[in-house]
Write a structure and sequence with these properties.
With 213 residues, this protein is an alpha/beta fold. The chain folds into two domains: 147 residues, no CATH class; 62 residues, no CATH class. The protein contains seven helices and seven strands. The protein has a five-stranded mixed sheet. Strand 3, helix 4 and strand 4 form a beta-alpha-beta unit. Helix 1 runs antiparallel to helix 7 and helix 5 runs parallel beside helix 7. It starts with a helix and ends with a helix.
């Protein structure tokens, strides 16, 4: 397990937790009104590790399971399963399905899953797991977000700080190893944008910690 991968894992997990409300707004804009934000969120890291002990020693997995309250009186709360995938893995769709059925078996709650692909393989973008045998067939589809398919326009014209975070990852991916001058100009532009949007200094520091690493 390399320190680089572990560091990136920690960065993604930390930034998702710090800006989770904005994460929901960015990736679930049409359903955001269904979430009861007044009750906060619960990150089920310990519970997820119990369900997937094999992931403890694999520094390449960035996974989160979050309990989110809703305004649906019958459901009351749901689970958001998040995967940040930064490398090619032919077994990724099966892993997503494995997460789904283990989580469902334990909680019997509605699950919304999203896979965020931060790799530079333009051809790697799985969106479902499918298996069939004789007359038995199953397809599990999940939401995806592929950075290499985005353009700068996808991050502009929004005051959502998570758009800035995703733009940061996109910028680094597009340039691989950005030159100092390019990175400097990128930071200056972001500072101006964040100040114009009146972001708290604490949030700006967190975003720039993500950028610098």
């Amino acid at each position: 397990m390399s320190k680089t991968i572990t560091s990136k894992d920690a960065l993604w997990k930390g930034i998702i937790e710090d800006f989770f409300e904005f994460f929901l707004l960015f990736f679930f804009p049409n359903d955001f009104h269904k979430f009861d934000l007044s009750k906060g969120f619960e990150f089920l890291d310990k519970e997820l590790l119990e369900l997937f002990p094999e992931s403890e020693n694999n520094g390449r997995y960035v996974d989160k399971l979050v309990k989110v309250h809703t305004y649906d009186g019958e459901t009351r709360w749901i689970l958001i399963h998040i995967e940040v995938q930064g490398y090619y893995d032919k077994d990724f769709p099966e892993r997503m399905f494995t997460y789904f059925y283990r989580i469902w078996d334990r909680y019997k709650k509605r699950i919304a899953a999203i896979a965020i692909f931060t790799d530079n393989n333009t051809w790697f973008h799985p969106k479902q797991y499918h298996t069939s045998f004789l007359q038995t067939e199953l397809t599990y589809k999940f939401q995806t977000y592929k950075l290499t398919e985005k353009t700068l326009a996808d991050f502009e014209n929004t005051d959502n700080p998570f758009a800035v975070i995703v733009e940061t990852a996109w910028y680094g991916l597009e340039r691989n190893k950005p030159e100092d001058e390019g990175l400097y100009n990128f930071k200056i532009r972001l500072v101006r944008r964040l100040k114009e949007l009146n972001y708290p200094n604490r949030d700006i520091r967190r975003i720039f910690h993500f950028i610098n690493h």
